[in-house]
Amino acid sequence: MVLTLVATGSVLAAPGKPVPGSVQGQVLDSRGRPLEGVQVWMKPVVTTGVAEVLTDEHGRYEVTGLPPVGYQALAWVQVPYKGKTFCSRLAHPKVSDYNAFNPRDGLVRNFRWQLSGRIPGNGDYSDLGYFGGSMPLMAGFGQERWATTQDEIELQLTPVGPLIDGSAGKAMTRTAPARGMVLDVPIGTYQVKATFIGAGGKRESLQVSASDGDYANETTVNFTPSGTFCKGTSGGAPGRAYVYWKFR
């Protein structure tokens, strides 16, 4: 069986009880406002094909005529930011909504735009497991010292201007393995300072750069989208911002 239903969102009446074989819902942004034109998928879990719709101006969607098999509800939003277009997977309001379901009796699956947090069912240590972006930590070229697997780097992140959703953002301190990446950072522009934490707990300030050049005590980094295709994946990782570091 292959599902190929594709429809654009039309104005939906106030939501009532879903009819058998249907899924309906609403998509909201991070501040609770409706999102129009969002891609919503009803993806079968044991066969091929997909039912795809777009939300209307009220953020509502409805898919009807679904065969009584198992599905997952997925949605993505494309957002322009700083001259680039980012793709963010949208969240469900309840963890149980990530489970597969059978639309035999009709049901509701809502979505919201969430800038950070774990995606239920995805791995802890991969950047695909989070709604936020990642900051890989890159050792600068030509150093006499190198980090070990026991060392860590602490980043002090201060937002520069609004985040991708227009909010102000908050300063944060995040720590990760020196050979790893800082996970789950809301997409935005950040002023970055870094501290090296040795295996024995000794701390020392680092120099940082956004491109392995012009190292300084602090630098400004911008996220780059993870890819150009904005649907069909259950993962997150909307973008990456590389932070290069050197010992002083």
Automatic annotation (TrEMBL):
Pfam families: CarboxypepD_reg. It comes from the Bacteria. InterPro entries: CarboxyPept-like_regulatory. This is Carboxypeptidase-like regulatory domain-containing protein. It comes from Deinococcus oregonensis.
